[in-house]
Amino acid sequence: MARQAWTRAADAEPSPWGGDRDGPGGRPDGARPNGARLGGDRWAGARVSLRTLNTIRWIAIAGQAITLLTVEDLVGIDIPLLPALAVTAVSLLINLYAISRRRRSPFLTERGAAVFLGYDTVQLTVLLMLTGGLENPFAVLVLAPLMVGASMLGRRLVTGLTALTAACLTLVWVLAMPLSWPASYGVTLPPVYLDGIWAALTLSAIFIATYVYKVAQSGRDLSQALIASQVSLARAQKASALGALAAAAAHELGSPLGTIAVVAKELARDLPPDSPWAEDIQLLQSQSARCRDILADLARRPDAEGEMEPYAPLGPVQVVEAVAAPHRRPEVALEITVTGAEEGAPSPLPLTPELQHGLGNILQNAMQFAHSRVDVTLHCDAAALMLTVADDGPGFPVSLLERLGEPYVSDRDERLEEVPVRAGGPGTMGLGLFIAQILLERTGATVAYANGPPGSTPLGAGARVMVSWSGALPAP
């Protein structure tokens, strides 16, 4: 589902390969750009704005030029100015070329962005080797391209960029020209200090790359999950619209089909039995009758198979049963109690996609971790509506109770150790309750989590999820 969402988004974006699109993703063979896949260590976008990287490089070029032109006058340190400016000028020319390329293709692939940032690392390394190496206080800037890359590239390219940065720092440590400090300063840095600077920068490169990559990847995973949820909701809405269209078509086609049947019957009555058209008229009658049966089947199929329209006015019990149906387990009983309203009255809960997916996720968790029973209580009155889902399982871990509903918080592993239910296995992302809460909050609900009294269930305390609406209730 998420992969299809990425495919649609990718087809709507400019091609990162430059030129016109000849196939999906802009490549002549229709293949996706390397690394542009969802999940794992790759970001689905696999596209980096060339404008952003150009802007960062312009800032670096300006800073390098100003520093090189003023350091001798301000500090009194003699540096090889012309070679250093020549290195900076190369970056300026490359950036001008990148601007001309940007008119044709405003995006880079992951690999192209890695090459772009790799050059910046090498260019800073050459400058440092000409201007004192690790004695230069600006040596820390060699980590800047790595930080940018770790925020937007995949794991393999970030690993390669980290290795390149560590290799460049080692070259600077071993081969750099020392700074010519003025004699009046009396500065002599001991080798052990330079060794420490090298070790600190190398370890910082590894730590920064790992940390920034993990933080950026978490945000990308969350974005993917929300995209998948949006696609699922859109499909549910399209399915509802398709059902309404089928019913309307069955209604509208009934009249012309009836006219055809009447005309065919009159023709069959007027033609003599030995007419060469008699067989064709019989075929026309049989096919019109078949079409009438198909339309009648389309009109009655939802009710016959128990498939209600998503926005039809159902009773409270029917709403909960419809949402819970895909997640039922034979050994777990589902008990539904309605208070404050008659059971036969229409439910104030419209069966919208947000409610189906949000409440469905909560009921699925309850069914998975329940021992033998799940209780759903729906209290309705004129001003408020509260729905409570309680299971007789082990309950939520107390250490996670206050954080439930936040992204990347999962109690699945701990609860599965206590209940013998196959619930998909450990290692989940912890986004289920978060997405469920987001969807329910879109209907105006508030969601709260709690446990029952200790020892009140065969496996522990039992988990409780309260979903409540106050004021204006959700409308279909």
From TrEMBL:
<dbReference type="Pfam" id="PF02518">
    <property type="entry name" value="HATPase_c"/>
</dbReference>
<feature type="region of interest" description="Disordered">
    <location>
        <begin position="1"/>
        <end position="38"/>
    </location>
</feature>
<feature type="transmembrane region" description="Helical">
    <location>
        <begin position="112"/>
        <end position="131"/>
    </location>
</feature>
<keyword id="KW-1133">Transmembrane helix</keyword>
<dbReference type="InterPro" id="IPR036097">
    <property type="entry name" value="HisK_dim/P_sf"/>
</dbReference>
<keyword id="KW-0418">Kinase</keyword>
<dbReference type="InterPro" id="IPR047770">
    <property type="entry name" value="RegB"/>
</dbReference>
<dbReference type="InterPro" id="IPR003594">
    <property type="entry name" value="HATPase_dom"/>
</dbReference>
<feature type="transmembrane region" description="Helical">
    <location>
        <begin position="193"/>
        <end position="213"/>
    </location>
</feature>
<keyword id="KW-0472">Membrane</keyword>
<feature type="transmembrane region" description="Helical">
    <location>
        <begin position="56"/>
        <end position="75"/>
    </location>
</feature>
<dbReference type="GO" id="GO:0000155">
    <property type="term" value="F:phosphorelay sensor kinase activity"/>
</dbReference>
<keyword id="KW-1003">Cell membrane</keyword>
<dbReference type="InterPro" id="IPR005467">
    <property type="entry name" value="His_kinase_dom"/>
</dbReference>
<protein>
    <recommendedName>
        <fullName>histidine kinase</fullName>
        <ecNumber>2.7.13.3</ecNumber>
    </recommendedName>
</protein>
<keyword id="KW-0808">Transferase</keyword>
<keyword id="KW-0812">Transmembrane</keyword>
<feature type="transmembrane region" description="Helical">
    <location>
        <begin position="161"/>
        <end position="181"/>
    </location>
</feature>
<feature type="transmembrane region" description="Helical">
    <location>
        <begin position="81"/>
        <end position="100"/>
    </location>
</feature>
<dbReference type="InterPro" id="IPR003661">
    <property type="entry name" value="HisK_dim/P_dom"/>
</dbReference>
<keyword id="KW-0547">Nucleotide-binding</keyword>
<feature type="domain" description="Histidine kinase">
    <location>
        <begin position="248"/>
        <end position="473"/>
    </location>
</feature>
<dbReference type="GO" id="GO:0005524">
    <property type="term" value="F:ATP binding"/>
</dbReference>
<keyword id="KW-0067">ATP-binding</keyword>
<feature type="transmembrane region" description="Helical">
    <location>
        <begin position="137"/>
        <end position="154"/>
    </location>
</feature>
<dbReference type="InterPro" id="IPR036890">
    <property type="entry name" value="HATPase_C_sf"/>
</dbReference>
<dbReference type="GO" id="GO:0005886">
    <property type="term" value="C:plasma membrane"/>
</dbReference>
<dbReference type="InterPro" id="IPR050980">
    <property type="entry name" value="2C_sensor_his_kinase"/>
</dbReference>
